[in-house]
């Protein structure tokens, strides 16, 4: 919703002691032409109304040319357009239409001023929402759990988009289950993916704007909720906002909710990818620990370059010296120049490489081994790779020398 209710209000200002029959036709012409709620106030009462409730008014229309009254309206307006029918010497009125031009001309000018102000109001409102959403977007993309994503999405819907009743629901099995909501506990009900407006949103992957929930064939009826916007979160679930009023939402509300849903969907997808990568790393580590040949796992984090090294049992049983994980760089972790350069060059490259290295064994002998570097894909700020040593020695790549 914009800072002024769409459909709007126009304040008509009359003199302190008006001749009602003189102004009745003018007021009715505004009501018919503008399609807005017309509020009539007299004299200083109008000034007080503008001062207190200005953000809810599209325009203040003065049907009298009392300069003192017009000046007080302009001073109290605080962004509300003031249009005067008649003549005035007061600077600051947005429009002054001479009464000799007729009421139809005046009504057209008021309609134009109201429309321009609404467009400006919606633009300001949109910019404010986008700015607020950008702050929440950063928080959403940085969440480390599904629960955090849902809670941060709910906060964005409430704080940035100003929705009062909102639910973030995810699919669990064949049900859509609320994970974060501002609705009362008794209204936080799950539903089957084939049921309700929520289910339709999820199945079609399309936004649903419902102005009258009770009239919707798929609605799971709730007497206290009369309209809704429901937006899909890809294959993960939905975001749904509801109102106690009919037709409370429009395309603008849906667009902002879709922007928010995009951030949320990407955050959930990232967590899925990280979960899959962790599972793959766990499988690799189990394989790594049981390899019958020496192996080392090396991980370097940015931007500080801290290094973590792990070795398997075969490595400890074979070699006299372990990598030093307390050193500040990959190069410093290995005593062997070839190993230092191989890990430093290929930890982040994504490409496997093999080369000869010369290592001293526990028995005090020196052996020439094949070292194969296998980088591990990562979605975070870390490069990692496994190094596997065996006795099949290939030709050393150009630029590498035995130490």
From TrEMBL:
<dbReference type="InterPro" id="IPR003018">
    <property type="entry name" value="GAF"/>
</dbReference>
<protein>
    <submittedName>
        <fullName>GAF domain-containing protein</fullName>
    </submittedName>
</protein>
<dbReference type="InterPro" id="IPR029016">
    <property type="entry name" value="GAF-like_dom_sf"/>
</dbReference>
<dbReference type="Pfam" id="PF13185">
    <property type="entry name" value="GAF_2"/>
</dbReference>
<feature type="domain" description="GAF">
    <location>
        <begin position="145"/>
        <end position="278"/>
    </location>
</feature>
